[in-house]
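Example (one chain per record):
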Amino acid sequence: MDKLVVTCQQGAPTAQALEDKTQRLLITIAYQDELTRAWAATVCARVTELVGGDHAEIHWWHVPDAKLYEISTTAIKAAAAADIIVVSVYGENKWPVSLCAWVDHWVALRTVTGGTMLALVTVSDPPHVHFDAVSEYLRAVADKAHLEFCSEFRKHPASNAHSNNT
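Predicted structure:
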């Protein structure tokens, strides 16, 4: 996880700018459910620990809430301005239409240069044949938005429990 955190910091405001309180680290996190949110929260806690909690502004977005216009508009604007965008999702589910729409909108609005996209992808054990398609899609998005990209995969806890019981 520390490698992910270091990579995320590379495109962020400089430590001196954060220390001088001239800038804040803007982080937008999109997640699918409580499990994916918990993983993102762990990573986010480590980043904010490194930069100082007072220097980070975090926007959380629950993907299913995108049906609500106000939330999706806020999530789009937050991602367009973010230094770090974290997407914590399942690797084997069909992509929610709202997530694709969110990505398309913030990429089109993005004027910030630099930054990082972090993909946290939860997969079953054994993983589905196409589990890395999510990561590849997000890598292409990061390239289009001129963001550094890093990803991490982990097994779904339920699949670990299942494999331990057999």
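Caption: The first helix runs from residue 2 to 10.
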